[in-house]
From TrEMBL, chain A:
Protein name per Swiss-Prot or TrEMBL: GATB amidotransferase
Record family assignment: Belongs to the GatB/GatE family. GatB subfamily.
Parts of the chain that traverse the membrane: none
Keyword Plastid appears in the UniProt entry: no
Residue span, Asn/Gln amidotransferase domain: 390-499
Keywords: ATP-binding, Ligase, Nucleotide-binding, Protein biosynthesis, Transferase
Reaction catalysed by this enzyme: L-glutamyl-tRNA(Gln) + L-glutamine + ATP + H2O = L-glutaminyl-tRNA(Gln) + L-glutamate + ADP + phosphate + H(+)
Alphabetical list of PANTHER family matching this protein: GLUTAMYL-TRNA GLN AMIDOTRANSFERASE SUBUNIT B MITOCHONDRIAL AND PROKARYOTIC PET112-RELATED, GLUTAMYL-TRNA(GLN) AMIDOTRANSFERASE SUBUNIT B, MITOCHONDRIAL
InterPro entries associated with the record: Asn/Gln-tRNA_amidoTrfase_suB/E, Asn/Gln-tRNA_Trfase_suB/E_cat, Asn/Gln_amidotransferase, Asn/Gln_tRNA_amidoTrase-B-like, GatB, Gln_synth/guanido_kin_cat_dom
From TrEMBL, chain B:
Key words, A-Z: ATP-binding, Ligase, Mitochondrion, Nucleotide-binding, Protein biosynthesis, Transferase
GO molecular function: ATP binding; glutaminyl-tRNA synthase (glutamine-hydrolyzing) activity; transferase activity
Name of the protein in question: GATA amidotransferase
Signal peptide: none
GO cellular component: glutamyl-tRNA(Gln) amidotransferase complex; mitochondrion
Cytoplasm in keyword set: no
Organism of this sequence: Ciccaba nigrolineata
InterPro entries in the cross-refs: Amidase, Amidase_dom, AS_sf, GatA
GO terms of biological process kind: glutaminyl-tRNAGln biosynthesis via transamidation; mitochondrial translation
Location of the Amidase domain: 20-480
Length: 499, 516
């Protein structure tokens, strides 16, 4: 789970003399939805930041949304382009069933109402990576609406207090991804790769119920986990499978919402938090200096850690939305509305999908807490780290140590080592077998816990030694013999007396 | 008939193909063809011949020379839409309807001329020049023709084919092929069929696949069928209709090809005469012919009643809004990036796009794009596009009401007059002409209904005049049955063209007797 907002704002407070003191108490503000920060020393009116998100998740499917060409990351340029993707005249879209199912699954997991009838539209603009001159999307009636996503964050650095927040999901819509254009300024040319053009996307629109970078990051992290659990999207941000745009504005309590800016080009969850927080602060500073906020699109520069105005493409765009005439309305069924004689293979049945949804992260966490008696915040960390839950459960199976004690080793020792060395769980040099073995020795009181930590450090080197071998080598065994202990103690006491 | 001849070995597919190709050459002045695929056609004919020799023809259409309007994709053969934008464009795939014809063994002679991107009602506004109506050179027309002055150029009195599928209509009319594909969005198959004296069928929307037909208005376009008799149209329809997974707007129901029965008793039929189709500008000649046809049905025992389609007069304006909006959208893909014409302008992507589109499109296309974008602007969408959709619904409901009240078929004129001379036609601009000429055919596209032009008689000027039948959705069988009966009654005369006579060694003679 993410740490609370406190960190960022305290730093901000320290930055400039005369900076509004209230920022240090930022953490309080976030806990009350929409609640304002108390007025600071300088007596300036408090600010309420408002953050909404538009998230594009690439659907995990074999073929694209409206054509049969393959979906694959990092293939040779223009090798996965069908006639339709290249917008050859006369080609027509044919809807991919798997993409519809992915969107329905996601909608159900986010507590949305699934629209039994949804429509497709064309959104027009000219750009090199949009071969048809329009994108097929769902502007009028999307496939799912009015859902919610619950996420948790820690409100202090100790990770001992977690609070659950909810963000409303406005809608989920199916739409086409665009191709990629690479600008080669040295040769004054633009290179266009259409492999990605036409890949299915789910756009998830989150209402502006968040108020800082940490909340945004936590919400996106939870969404990412849900998508990965469902399998509807692999949601790997680094591969462009999950893209987040943030809408940020600030206003005084009781006043209408301020002008918002859109922040794009955010490539990781960490950068999302930074970008949002930077933008909030930038807007506050602008407004407090008497300037105004422009309704513009800004890009996050990860190197500088700030947002910059994006090259203004064409002013305010009029997308000239029009119904997509080549696709009839998308009709979905449920158990009640399914006609008796219809082959269930031919249609998408919402109830059928609902019955087969896997356990969502929140359910998985609850089960972990219940089954193993660990703390809720522990379950968050377990799920947040790819493969960690499986590792934990594997260790449990192979050791007598109680889960409540094992969890400490997993979260404090294993995880911190992994983080230090930037490794994933899969890459861990210490396998669950080895760790379980070590923990067993600890349980058997063959070694002390201090010694165990030393052994763990040795195991980490990955030299292939077993815990037993390391213990023998380093002479870390606990002395079991009473007489030996007495002798040692006496020796120490004698030594002390001499000083 | 010619199919029977092929089967019986009286004529060979290669011979038939050669005759058609040489007739195309002698009628080159008609400018009906943009591309003649001589080599591939002969190869196809040879393959067909082999099959006939083995006694295994693929079907009725095996070895039959056909032509296809140049807005259908044909793999390996240039597809231009009569536009600079696609000059030299060789598509990598066949339109579904083209593929179906080829799979039946048909011999594709070439691609026919049209108005650029099918926008127009004269087949005069393509970059390859206008199509000339074969009847301009018929004995029937020449006999009746009175020159306006002695100094008038002999060649200047030729008349238009109508459009936008003028090339296909001319090709069928001049006997250079036995069937042709056109497209119909506002009357583009029926209008030239009427002016060229051939059968022009607009099927129900959703019956025949549009995959591979370069779209004008996706929600109204249909592939059209042009033939010399109704029976032929029924045959071609049978081979083309049916669900296509590549076209999501085709209906799922199984289509059963039918054979047309010879209707003898029309007493159970109810023919509707929509009074609004007595449109301003309708020539007295056609009005009289329409009336005569109504009487024909009445005298044969059918019930003939006047009906009303009150929203007919709004259809042109409604069409204008919806058509231009879809055009603006459909033409957005022509940017020179992936295919087609690309301008040399390379200062920036935007300037390249702008120059490419200015160079590639003619004024008609550009005008419609500008209008369409205007109607789709956020601030205008509600007042124009949405309103037009509502009016469209009203127009469609007019038909529903009339057909629901017991009327089986509607009988209307197809065009306001016979074909006008080119010199006169071009005095008005494309938009004006389209608005005038589409009035009788347009509403059927709005409502998605099947409609057919049946050549009826010659005008005083010796030019063909046709009448239109409009049927219920997906009731092509009934529509064509009635059309066939009517065709039999009127006995429309065969065109008397010098060129055709020269090439006729008894093959076309067959054709001639069939259409009586």
């Amino acid at each position: 789970a993410a740490r609370g907002c406190g960190g960022v704002w305290r730093r901000a407070w320290q930055r400039g003399a005369g900076g509004p003191a209230f920022r240090g108490q930022r953490a309080l503000a976030c806990n009350v939805r929409g609640g304002a920060v108390p007025a600071g020393k300088s007596g300036l009116a408090p600010w309420v930041p408002v953050v909404g998100l538009e998230i594009h998740a690439q659907i995990s499917s074999n073929s694209k949304l409206f054509s049969g060409s393959q979906v694959q990351f990092a293939a040779p340029p223009n090798s996965l382009v069908s006639f339709f993707d290249a917008s050859l005249p006369g080609t027509l879209p044919v809807l991919n069933r798997r993409c519809v199912e992915a969107a329905v699954m996601t909608g159900l997991a986010l507590n949305c109402t699934i629209n039994k009838k949804s429509l497709f539209d064309r959104k027009h603009y000219f750009y090199a990576d949009l071969p048809a001159g329009y994108q097929i999307t769902q502007q009028r009636v999307p496939i799912a609406v009015n859902g919610s996503l619950s996420y948790s964050l820690c409100i202090d650095n100790k990770m001992s207090q977690m609070v659950t927040k909810t963000v409303r999901i406005k809608q989920i819509q199916l739409e086409q991804d665009s191709g990629k254009s690479l600008h080669d300024d040295t040769r004054s040319q633009t290179l266009v790769d259409l492999n990605r053009a036409g890949v299915g996307l789910m756009e998830v629109v989150m209402e502006p119920d968040m108020c800082c970078g940490e909340e945004a990051a936590a919400a996106v992290r939870e969404l990412q986990l849900i998508l990965q659990t469902l399998g509807s999207s692999q949601a790997v941000m680094a591969e462009g499978q999950l893209r987040v745009d943030a809408n940020v504005s600030v206003h005084h309590p009781g006043e209408p919402y301020g002008v918002r800016t859109e922040v794009k080009n955010i490539n990781s969850i960490r950068f999302l938090a930074k970008a949002v927080d930077y933008e909030i602060q930038r807007q506050i500073e602008e407004l407090e200096s008497g300037r105004t906020i422009l309704n513009e699109t800004r890009a996050f520069d990860s190197k500088l850690g700030c947002t910059v105005p994006m090259r203004d493409k064409e002013g305010k765009q009029d997308y000239r939305f029009m119904p997509e005439p080549n696709l009839p309305p998308l009709i979905l069924y449920d158990a009640k509305s399914l006609p008796a004689n219809m082959n269930h293979q031919q249609v998408v049945n919402i109830d059928w999908i609902h019955e087969r949804l896997p356990d969502l992260p929140s359910v998985k966490r609850a089960k972990l807490v219940e089954r193993y008696g660990i703390l809720p915040e522990h379950s968050f960390t377990l799920l947040n780290e790819d493969g960690l839950t499986e590792f934990f459960e594997d260790v449990i199976k192979q050791t007598q140590m109680k889960p409540k004690k094992v969890i400490g080793w997993i979260l404090k020792d294993l995880l911190s080592y992994l983080k230090q060395h930037s490794l994933t769980v899969k890459e861990s040099p210490v396998s669950s077998f080895l760790l379980a073995d070590l923990l067993n020795r600890l349980e058997e009181k063959e070694i002390s816990s201090t010694a165990a930590k030393q052994v763990f450090a040795e195991l980490w080197k990955g030299e292939g030694k077993t815990p037993l071998e390391i213990v023998k080598e380093k002479k870390l065994q606990l002395i079991q013999d009473q007489k030996d202990l007495e002798q040692i103690c006496q020796a120490v006491i004698d030594g002390q007396e001499n000083e | 008939q010619v199919s029977a001849a092929l089967k019986e070995g009286r004529v060979a597919p290669t011979e038939l193909c050669q005759r058609c190709l040489s007739l195309i050459k002698s009628t080159k002045f008609l400018n009906a063809y943009i591309t003649v695929a001589e080599e591939t056609a002969l190869k196809q004919a040879e393959e067909s011949e082999k099959r006939y020799r083995r006694g295994q023809p693929l079907g009725v259409l095996d070895g039959i020379p056909i032509a296809v309007k140049d807005n259908f994709n044909t793999a390996g053969i240039e597809t231009t839409c009569a536009s600079n934008m696609l000059k030299g464009y060789i598509s990598p795939y066949n339109a579904t309807v083209v593929q179906k014809l080829l799979d039946q063994g048909a011999v594709l002679l070439g691609k026919t001329n049209l108005d650029e991107f099918a926008m127009g009602s004269g087949s005069t506004d393509g970059v390859f020049g206008p199509v000339r109506n074969p009847w301009s050179y018929s004995r029937q027309y020449k006999e009746k023709y009175v020159p306006k002055s002695h100094s008038e150029d002999k060649d200047s009195n030729w008349v238009i084919t109508g459009g936008s599928s003028g090339g296909s209509a001319a090709a069928v009319s001049s006997f250079t092929c036995f069937a042709a594909l056109g497209s119909d969005t506002g009357g583009s198959t029926r209008n030239p069929a009427a002016h060229c004296g051939v059968v022009g069928l607009k099927p129900t929307y959703g019956l025949i696949s549009r995959h591979g037909l370069i779209p004008l208005v996706n929600s109204m376009d249909v592939p059209g069928i042009l033939t010399r008799c109704v029976d032929d149209a029924a045959i071609v329809l049978g081979l083309l209709a049916g669900h296509d997974p590549k076209d999501s707007t085709t209906i799922q129901d199984n289509f059963k090809p039918f054979e047309l029965s010879n209707l003898t008793d029309v007493s159970k039929l109810s023919i509707g005469i929509p009074k609004e189709y007595h449109a301003p500008g309708l020539s007295s000649e056609i009005l009289a012919l329409w009336s005569k046809a109504a009487d024909l049905f009445k005298n044969a025992g059918a019930k003939v009643i006047e009906v009303s389609l009150p929203h007919t007069r709004y259809s042109i304006v409604c069409y204008h809004v919806l058509c231009t909006a879809e055009v603006a959208s459909n033409m957005a893909r022509f940017d020179g990036l992936e295919y087609g014409h690309r301008s040399d302008m390379n200062k920036s992507t935007e300037s390249m796009y702008a120059a490419t589109r200015r160079e590639g499109f003619n004024d008609v296309v550009r005008g419609r794009i500008l209008s369409g974008n205007y109607f789709m602007l956020n601030q205008n969408y509600e007042n124009y596009f949405i309103k037009a959709q509502k009016v469209r619904r009203l127009i469609a409901n007019d038909f529903v009401k009339v057909f629901g009240s017991g009327v089986d078929i509607l009988l209307t004129p197809t065009t306001l007059s016979d074909a006008v001379p080119y010199a006169e036609f071009i005095k008005e601009d494309n938009r004006t002409r389209s608005a005038q000429d589409d009035i009788l055919t347009q509403a059927a596209n709005m409502a998605g209904l099947p409609a057919i032009n049946v050549p009826t008689a010659l005008s005083e000027r010796g030019l063909p005049v046709g009448l239109q039948f409009i049927g219920r959705s997906f009731q092509e069988k009934q529509l064509l049955t009635v059309a066939k009966w009517f065709e039999k009654q009127v006995k429309f005369p065969t065109i008397q063209l010098e060129e055709v006579k020269r090439h006729d060694h008894g093959v076309f003679q067959h054709q001639k007797s069939a259409s009586f």
